[in-house]
Amino acid sequence: MPRVKPIWLIILIAMTSMSPARAATPVTPVPSSDYWSTDPDILLPYESPGMFDWIAATPGNLLSFGKKINPKKNYRWIAGITASSLLLIKYDQDIVDASQKIARRMGLISDTKTGRETFTLIDAKLGSYDLPLVVPRNVNSVMYFFGDGLAHLGVVGGLLGYGLYYNDKRAISTASQTAEALVMTGIIVQVIKRTTGREAPFVATEKGGKWQWFPNQLEYNRKVPQFDAFPSGHLATVMATTTVLADNYPQHRYIWPLSTGIMTLLSFAMLNNGVHWAGDYPLGLAIGYVAGKVALERNRKQRKSLLNNRSQYKPGYWLMPYVNNGVTGLQLKVWF
After folding, report:
1. Half-sphere exposure of 198 toward its Cβ, with a 13 Å CA cutoff?
2. From CA 147, how far away is CA 154, in angstroms rounded?
């Protein structure tokens, strides 16, 4: 297959171009985990967010996300995402066929197994809704689960639990920021999916999957795989989580390389099990990255505002006569 090599080169170029590079910059030592900033000249104290800040910030975050799509300022990014998406979409069927052929040779999938197989660990219910707890059953499904919502809820829950146990405000704040980015990502991805209506590879009725713009939403809910391929929500959530984690913990330089490896395996797995086309990836990565940046910027503005307010707070005192129930004297109040 002489055409396989350029196809995989296209995938590699698209994936690496969408992963933001990180320059090796020295990290400024900080006095405690309650303080951190990507700006070495400033120490921003972390604050424990409100219980529902992560959801209350959603309307403002979506507005900020929209402002980020500024063709004048970001025309290069927009052009790159558009060009890489169109190029991959053109070769999508060939890419999926080649990927699945390689996966069969590796034993990841077979003619009877798709790589999506899972094992139901707990078959729970909430009213009339099934809430099964499933675990991966093979290597390909393990790679696929990297992008599953439960994995990212685990990240948020782990940060929150650690932060509460050790009174680590940075961990608590990072958990809230991650949740913000995931909510934002989920809403935006769903709007686009429910607008473009692209078939997933494993149910495709034509090469490259049929696009059914503005599908009937009731039909969408009944037959989700027939409409929800574009863009990839799995990659968007991984990118959003990574963007928030890497910015809040810049001393851990392995976050971006590790995440890039995870996203590469996830991308391969989703081609193998027929859930996504490669053309679904660039926009998904871009959405996750921007959502993460929006959550970070909102949190940083909030922390700078609190720091400025504190800097305007000056110690002082007042001395007043005191008379109460026949008792007279002086009342002194000191604040610092």
Report:
1. 24
2. 12
